[in-house]
Amino acid sequence: MTSQASDPTWFGQPRGLTVLFLTNMWEQFSYYGMRALLVYYMTKELLMTQGHSSFVYGAYTACAYFTPIVGGVIADRLLGKRRAVVLGATIMAIGHFMMAFEPLFYFALATIALGNGLFLPSLPSQINDLYKAGDPRRGWAYNVYYVGINIGGFLAPLICGTLGELYGWHYGFGAAGIGMFAGLIIYLWGQRYLPPEPPRVPTADMPPMRWADHKGTFMVLLAVALSVTVFRGAYEQVGNTVALWADTGLDRGLGGFTIPMTWFQSLNPLLVMLMTPPLLAYWHRRADAGKDTSPARRMALGAVVVACAYMLLAAVEWGSGDAKAPWLWFAMFFAIFTFGELLVLPTGLGLFARLAPPRLGATTVAAWYLAIFTGSLSAGLVGMLWSYVDHASFFAMLGLIALAAALLLRSLDGAVRRVDPTWGAKGD
């Protein structure tokens, strides 16, 4: 049953959102925990070359975001969202435990990617069904959910990484498997708080879906996905060229102590957790005043903020000359960057889930993750320019890419309003 504002809640949201939040948090703990160890395990334990390990790593992460498009179809047409989550989580837990055995390495990676294909689109596609149409809480529910991703991403390197590096790689992989199993237990326990499964086959009261009825919606989502692909060409550089610059172009000294590089990478999920509550409170006040911002405009604003973050790096690099830049500038970059991210990524996920046609919720959400896949590929192509231009110009180029994505998203505002019943022709 969908929720109303007067129904029992946890933290002001339907109880099912907390169940989905915690399930996803532990799934992300297992994913990022394993990913934090993967390259080190391949090069130090399996003695792979850097090129081979990078190829395996890239192939695995690409598959992890490609399999959901198939898994979403299977969930919508055959299994249903709940069975897909349970089966996907079980398969992933098995895959993580398989990582403890060296001969099963490649089979373990394939198993995790397959399980992820069922799990990833099926879990967040249930959020929209927790709310009635017009419920103002639905607009920022995906930001609450997004915090779960980052809590798991923040804890995983600290726990799985420490266990793997100090006590043995297999202990770290085992901890990731335990995290996945914990998420599965939480989901099974909390199913009574989740929305009922929609019918997966046409009935007398629900005629078969026709493409022509939803063509406009699909075309709008495709345009949003292409805009996000452009955006991620700049966004994904944080783990690539920006990390390279921070390693060689940043003064990480603090009173005689050199700040470890990985600590800076933990700033992003930490800031997500710190920024989300006040941001949600602000949006809540705007919604109460009838001034809430439409999804496309919110995403466009976020892309502009990310562009400003990269322009800051360009200015810092240009101003530093041959000297290394103070690390405080890098911390400021992450603060601006994370704020923009919170406006773009959770909003986009929520938009795809909200506009999903009946009985195609998981498939439509899977298309959002396919945009992440294509965006990651575009980021790889952009990153190849790092060695051919000076760093200040490269960061300025990233700012322009994010700004181009902002213009594309802003141009889609009218189209999104026409297909989104929540907004219609409303203004801000």
UniProtKB/TrEMBL annotation:
GO cellular component terms attached to this protein's record: plasma membrane
Location in or out of the cell: Cell membrane; Membrane
GO MF annotations in UniProt: peptide transmembrane transporter activity
GO process annotations (BP): oligopeptide transport
Protein name (database record): MFS transporter
Transmembrane residue ranges: 55-75, 82-99, 105-123, 144-164, 170-190, 216-235, 263-283, 295-315, 327-353, 365-386, 392-409
Primary location: membrane
InterPro entries: Dipep/tripep_permease (IPR005279), MFS_dom (IPR020846), MFS_trans_sf (IPR036259), MFS_Transporters (IPR050171), POT_fam (IPR000109), PTR2_symporter_CS (IPR018456)
Species: Sphingopyxis witflariensis
Record's keyword terms, sorted: Cell membrane, Membrane, Peptide transport, Protein transport, Transmembrane, Transmembrane helix, Transport
NCBIfam families per record: yjdL_sub1_fam (TIGR00924)
Superkingdom as given in the UniProt entry: Bacteria
Residues in Major facilitator superfamily (MFS) profile domain copies: 16-417
